[in-house]
Design a protein that fits this description.
80% helix, 12 helices, 293 residues, mainly alpha
């Protein structure tokens, strides 16, 4: 295996590991504050941190004209709608349902890529997506047995999954001139600004800005919003459909984090489903490697 392939695999694994940790960190954080408050603070701090680095270290320029529009669209769908609606949907949808919803992202991204970018998605990629979805269903089966979901929760979950898929394909279609750090910084800051009014409007309980809140916020800001999103943007620039396959690992890693941090159980379904997900990743990445040679 050549060096770029090893680097790509490490990047994908690290992305899935960091991105999946957000669920447990969020569950810990919302014990102290409301979900929308937690995520608004997270986005504003992450955006400020990224833009400070982009400006002071990388000496990046400010966005110009059309770039503001592109960044606002990307931030609205990738941050405000996707994550803002997701945290609200968690009140009406249990963990098993959210895992299945997350697993549908690669399918949505594959369809949008084929339709919007007029890019042919290989039959092996469709097979890998199907196997990945089955794997996540198997992993989530014990959770689904005790799951509930309201119609409102399902509609909210569907809308945020569509938003994330749209933002991923949209990002890949734009010939960005800004650095990846600047793009991430602006989109997450804009996303936080757009989310802030909703945090105020739907405020309903007392928030406690204690140590638990700040530790959760730190993790959501640095390893997740800064680290994981930077890695995700890198993966998207290489291949949108290929990158989306790494999302299958997120429910797997998410269950592992929940088992360690929140004492949630791991069953034999976890191991069988993990095997199917790894098979899906192998097929999808191997197919991409053949197409690029």
């Amino acid at each position: 295996m050549n060096r770029p392939s090893i680097q790509y695999l490490i990047t994908g694994l690290l992305f899935a590991l960091l991105w999946s940790s957000a669920s447990s960190a969020g569950k810990i954080g919302i014990q102290s504050v409301e979900g929308l408050v937690l995520f608004t603070v997270r986005f504003l701090l992450a955006g400020a941190l990224l833009l400070a680095y982009a400006s002071l270290v990388q000496r990046d320029r400010l966005p110009q004209k059309q770039e503001w529009v592109q960044l606002t669209i990307f931030g609205a769908f990738n941050t405000t709608i996707y994550l803002g609606v997701f945290i609200v949907a968690l009140e009406d949808v249990t963990a098993g349902v959210t895992s299945i919803a997350l697993a549908l992202n690669p399918l949505m991204i594959g369809i949008m890529t084929a339709l919007w970018m007029k890019t042919r998605v290989s039959s092996m990629h469709w097979i890998s997506i199907a196997i990945g979805i089955v794997g996540v269903v198997v992993v989530s089966y014990p959770l689904l047995m005790n799951s509930y979901a309201t119609l409102t929760g399902l509609l909210l979950m569907a809308s945020c999954m569509l938003a994330y898929s749209f933002s991923s394909v949209y990002y890949a279609t734009i010939p960005w001139k800004l650095s990846r750090t600047a793009i991430n910084g602006w989109q997450v800051l804009i996303g936080g600004i757009l989310l802030a009014p909703f945090a105020l409007i739907f405020h309903s309980k007392e928030n406690h800005y204690d140590l638990r809140f700040w530790l959760s916020t730190f993790w959501l800001v640095v390893p997740v919003s800064v680290g994981a999103v930077q890695l995700w943007l890198y993966l998207l620039r290489i291949d949108t459909v290929r990158a989306s396959l790494w999302l299958f690992l997120c429910p797997i890693f998410g269950l592992a984090f929940a088992a360690v941090l929140l004492d949630e159980p791991i069953t034999w379904y976890t191991f069988v489903g993990t095997g199917l997900v790894l098979l899906a990743l192998y097929i999808g990445q191997r197919s991409s490697a053949k197409q690029s040679t």
